[in-house]
Write a structure and sequence with these properties.
The protein has 320 residues and is α/β, with parallel strands linked by helices. The chain has two domains: 2-166 and 204-231, NAD(P)-binding Rossmann-like Domain (Rossmann fold, 3-Layer(aba) Sandwich); 167-201 and 235-305, Alpha-Beta Complex (UDP-galactose 4-epimerase, domain 1). The protein contains eleven helices and 14 strands. The protein has helices at residues 13-22, 34-43, 59-63, 84-102, 143-154, 176-187, 205-221, 240-251, 260-274, 284-290, 299-305; strands spanning 2-6, 26-31, 46-49, 67-70, 108-113, 124-125, 158-163, 167-169, 189-193, 199-204, 229-231, 235-239, 254-258, 280-281. The strands form four sheets. The chain has a seven-stranded parallel β-sheet with strand order 3-2-1-4-5-7-11, with helices on both faces. Strands 8-10-12 form a three-stranded mixed β-sheet. α4 (84-102) packs parallel to α5 and α8 packs parallel to α11 (299-305).
Length: 320
């Protein structure tokens, strides 16, 4: 297949692009500027200049391809204290999905998303609990994208969601864990909130990329029903205390219990908001529906052996 990918040269998108090319597919990647086009060329992909902020011209790219994967998202959340820009990005994302989806004409599309719905009585987010839910039950505003996808599925389009956890880990990560490590280096301690028994789900970048491709191929051959939400999860849930202790040991410092307020002071509002949250996610139905199995190392092993503790500082989420 020839696949159009938004976010094709990004952290996750570059892995999806490489795996697609290695599997014999062709890639037409969205590039916002000439430098991004050169990155795609270096990966062996073609480029299409444009932006998800103006999705109508992207219909031309969809028409040139056999399938679509959307990974691009304008992440303003780090330096957006009132979340105005972030909410605007959510509107952009939903509109881009609507426009691209309406241009599919039978072509399959896989869309990256987060976790918009509450879990079961144990707090575990499960795939089968998401279908047919009312928007009023959502716990995260990216529900707008979910609703567009489900609308497309009802209209007969071949679409699926791949939900990504807060931490998608591997070398090159600049997200939550690298920022937590940088914060720990600066303060001399690693903090977990309360007793640190809240759990975080995570996945290795290469495993996540593989799920996007499997989902796309199965939508194309009809073995994956349209409208499914798939969970790209390697570790269902590791306690934040465990994560903190592994980082502390690796840096030769102490871990300690802190308040949410102290976490915000050290690590900024984004980490302060989510570090104390319970984020447990099941991948049971995803494996059943797709045959996908995560095979890469888990988060704790990657922190120790994957270069996280020796990588340059990552401070895009930290207080200025």
């Amino acid at each position: 297949m020839r696949v159009f990918i938004t976010g094709a040269h990004g952290y996750i998108g570059s892995s999806v692009t490489k795996q697609l090319l290695a599997s014999g597919h062709q890639v037409l990647g969205l590039a916002h500027h000439p430098e991004a086009a050169l990155k795609l060329q270096a990966l062996g992909a073609e480029s299409f200049i444009g932006t998800i902020s103006d999705p109508l011209p992207l219909i031309e790219a969809v028409q040139q391809c056999d399938a679509v994967i959307t990974l691009a998202f304008n992440h303003h959340i780090a330096n957006d204290p009132d979340f105005t820009k972030f909410l605007h990005s959510i509107d952009e994302d939903a509109e881009a999905v609507r426009v691209l989806g309406n241009a599919l004409e039978g072509r399959p599309m896989v869309v990256a998303a987060g976790y918009s719905w509450p879990g079961d009585e144990e707090g575990i987010k499960r795939e089968e609990l998401e279908e047919g839910r009312d928007a009023s039950e959502a716990v995260f505003p990216r529900i707008k994208t979910d609703l567009e996808i489900w609308k497309l599925a009802k209209q007969g389009a071949k679409v699926a969601i791949v939900r990504l956890p807060t931490t998608v880990h591997s070398p090159g990560d600049t997200g939550m864990i690298p920022n937590l490590i940088t914060s720990a280096r600066r303060s001399g301690k690693v903090g977990y909130i309360g007793e640190g028994q809240n759990k975080w789900a995570s996945v290795h970048r290469e495993d996540a990329a593989k799920l996007f491709i499997i989902a796309l191929e199965r939508l194309a051959n009809g073995s994956l029903p349209s409208g499914k939400s798939l969970h790209a999860i390697g570790d269902e849930g590791i306690t934040t205390k465990e994560i903190s202790e592994v980082i502390a040991k690796g840096l030769g410092i102490e871990s300690e219990s802190i308040t949410p307020e102290e976490c915000i002071k050290r690590a900024g509002p984004v980490l302060g908001m989510v570090w104390g949250m319970e984020i447990r996610v099941s991948n049971e139905k995803t494996k059943e529906w797709t045959g996908w199995e995560p095979v890469e190392c888990g988060l704790l092993e990657d922190i120790v052996e994957g270069g996280y503790l020796t990588a340059p500082e990552s401070s895009n989420l930290l207080p200025k």
